[in-house]
């Protein structure tokens, strides 16, 4: 064992001893102060922090009864169990904590979830009404209150008015939560106002409640109002065309996919409603980058409603954000079972993960297969496929799919300028500048303030030695739109360089280097301007720096070696 690891182990042991002295009795000190206990405990904690739940579980399982001495262990171990989808094991552990009077909110929540899942509302009510909430946060108190209300709706067979009075007690600071609960309450009791309440929510101007269009359409479908459900979805998709959940439901209704339609969500099922509450909580934690805690609530949501595919999407996204790609891939693969929209989304994300692992050809093959399996690919799916091909240098193939998109949309469509730009880049890369230039100009005509399209076109003109003055004006506009973008700043400086405005060019090229210190082209340009301003020694320093950058290709290295000897080529 190296001295470094010996030192680290000693530090961990001292820290562990300190914890036990503070939280445990002297009788138990010897039991927990073993080197293997120390190692397993901290390895478990670190694995959990890295969101490697399998490893964390394996380390924690080697420890026994540490909860008697260390509260943080209990919390971490329970989180590990739930995030490994070991809900039954988490329930048993939570009951053990309860008996020892060492329970806390998350452990209470696991027990309650088990009771709700089993429709044992008597036990759920008993626990919810007797637990000590002194250490609960305001959010935890809110969740406790909402779950208790729904449990009592079921246990006591409350009518709408009795239930509504209970939910009115929710603090006004949680207005959006109150709105959502009101919707589910109306849906649960199938009130005469349910459709009006749904309409009010999904058309709310203060918050995007487009997700609840799903629950509205789902409600209508299960009332055999299929045409109305389709119309509601169609209207919302016109405003949110990429909404995955709505697209899949719309497709399932059209294709009469009964399995998906009947089992995804039921507002008469309290277990399903509480699962959605957990999803809302998980989404909130994910937005604050608390991914492990977010995953905890997602897994509870999945436990309560295992058929609702929506929960898997957020779980996979969380794994991607924490760079746990193997687990992300596993969750995305699950989505293949829930219809073509989720299957296509899954294939796209897996392809991106495979590319990150340099499995480009495999990724392309699988994505092509997934695209060909789509019944009728829409313009967004086709555009995404074209983008994937272009971004992975399959330029001629991408042109075909960009053209397909452009043939099926008007110039006013949001995809038109983006598809024109994408195809323009592909044409430029295969050497067809005439078509590329036209596509860039068409894109800017449709949407003039696209800083990156302006930059690509203007820089291309500069490199070709044409329309330099026009390029300069365009790049000044792009720079105003994106003043701290390194590429645009570099392009503006380079246009000034081409016009021999060396002092002015230096200002922008220096800033570009500061913004992108490891970019070969940007550093090469800065070296050129240093030379032209008489700083030849500094110029040679930057050129030598570029030669040592990994991203510098052989073509650029050859040019730089000539510059080191003779300086930049003449602009005459």
Structural descriptors:
572 residues; mainly alpha
Give a verbal description of the structure:
The chain starts with a helix and ends in a 6-residue tail after the last helix. It is globular, with a radius of gyration of 30 Å. Helix 13 (211-222) runs parallel beside helix 15 (244-255), helix 25 (415-429) runs antiparallel to helix 26 (433-446) and helix 28 (468-481) packs antiparallel against helix 29. The protein has helices at residues 3-23, 29-32, 35-49, 53-60, 71-83, 87-99, 105-117, 121-130, 138-155, 160-167, 175-189, 194-202, 211-222, 226-239, 244-255, 258-263, 270-287, 291-304, 310-321, 325-335, 340-356, 360-372, 379-391, 395-407, 415-429, 433-446, 451-464, 468-481, 486-498, 502-515, 520-532, 536-547, 554-566. The protein has 572 residues and is mainly alpha-helical. It has a domain at 1-103.
Percentage of residues in strands = under 5%
Structural class: mainly alpha
Helicity, as a percent range: over 70%
Poorly predicted runs are: 1-30
Helix count, per DSSP? Answer: 33
Biggest β-sheet description = none
Terminal CA distance reads 66 Å
Radius of gyration: 30 Å
Described by the principal axes of the CA atoms, the overall outline is globular
Total beta-strand segments: 0
Give the integer mean of the pLDDT values: 90
């Amino acid at each position: 064992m190296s001295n470094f690891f010996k030192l680290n182990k000693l530090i961990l042991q001292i820290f562990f001893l300190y914890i036990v002295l503070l939280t445990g009795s002297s009788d138990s000190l010897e039991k927990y102060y073993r080197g293997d206990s120390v190692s397993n405990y901290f390895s478990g904690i670190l694995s959990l922090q890295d969101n490697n739940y399998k490893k964390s579980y394996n380390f924690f399982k080697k420890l026994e009864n540490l909860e008697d001495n260390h509260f943080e262990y209990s919390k971490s171990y329970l989180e590990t169990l739930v995030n490994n989808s070991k809900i039954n094991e988490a329930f048993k552990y939570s009951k053990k904590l309860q008996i020892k009077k060492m329970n806390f909110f998350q452990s209470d929540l696991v027990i309650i979830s088990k009771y709700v899942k089993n429709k044992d509302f008597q036990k759920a009510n008993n626990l919810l009404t007797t637990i000590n909430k002194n250490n609960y946060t305001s959010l935890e108190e809110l969740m406790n209150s909402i779950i208790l209300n729904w449990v009592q709706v079921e246990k006591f067979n409350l009518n709408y008015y009795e239930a509504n009075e209970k939910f009115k007690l929710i603090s006004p600071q949680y207005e959006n939560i109150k709105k959502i609960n009101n919707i589910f309450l109306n849906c649960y009791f199938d009130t005469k106002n349910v459709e009006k309440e749904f309409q009010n929510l999904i058309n709310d101007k203060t918050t995007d409640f487009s997700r609840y269009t799903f629950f509205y359409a789902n409600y209508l479908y299960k009332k055999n109002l299929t045409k109305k459900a389709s119309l509601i979805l169609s209207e919302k998709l016109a405003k949110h065309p990429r909404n995955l959940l709505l697209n899949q439901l719309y497709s399932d209704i059209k294709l009469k996919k009964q399995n998906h339609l009947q089992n995804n969500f039921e507002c008469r099922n309290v277990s399903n409603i509480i699962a959605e509450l957990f999803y809302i909580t998980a989404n909130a934690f994910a937005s604050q980058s608390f991914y492990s805690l977010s995953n905890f609530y997602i897994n509870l949501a999945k436990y309560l409603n295992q058929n609702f595919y929506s929960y898997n999407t957020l779980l996979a996204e969380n794994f991607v954000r924490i760079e746990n790609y193997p687990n992300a891939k596993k969750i995305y693969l699950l989505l293949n079972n829930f219809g073509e929209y989720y299957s296509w989304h899954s294939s796209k994300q897996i392809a991106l993960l495979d590319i990150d692992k340099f499995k480009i050809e495999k990724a392309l093959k699988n994505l092509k297969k997934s695209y060909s399996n789509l019944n009728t690919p829409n313009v967004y799916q086709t555009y995404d496929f074209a983008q994937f091909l272009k971004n992975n240098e399959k330029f001629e193939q991408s042109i075909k799919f960009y053209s397909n998109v452009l043939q099926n949309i008007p110039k006013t469509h949001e995809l038109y300028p983006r598809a024109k730009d994408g195809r323009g880049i592909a044409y430029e890369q295969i050497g067809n500048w005439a078509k590329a230039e036209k596509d860039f100009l068409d894109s800017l005509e449709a949407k003039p303030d696209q800083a990156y399209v302006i930059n690509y076109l203007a820089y291309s003109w500069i490199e070709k030695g044409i329309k330099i003055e026009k390029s300069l004006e365009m790049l000044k506009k792009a720079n105003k739109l994106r003043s701290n973008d390194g590429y645009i700043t570099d392009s503006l400086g380079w246009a000034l360089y081409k016009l021999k405005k060396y002092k002015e060019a230096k200002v922008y090229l220096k800033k570009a280097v500061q913004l992108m210190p490891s970019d070969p082209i940007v550093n090469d340009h800065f070296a050129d301007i240093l030379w032209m301003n008489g700083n030849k020694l500094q110029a040679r320093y930057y050129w030598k720096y570029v030669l040592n950058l990994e991203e510098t290709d052989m073509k650029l290295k050859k040019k730089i070696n000539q510059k080191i000897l003779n300086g930049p080529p003449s602009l005459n």
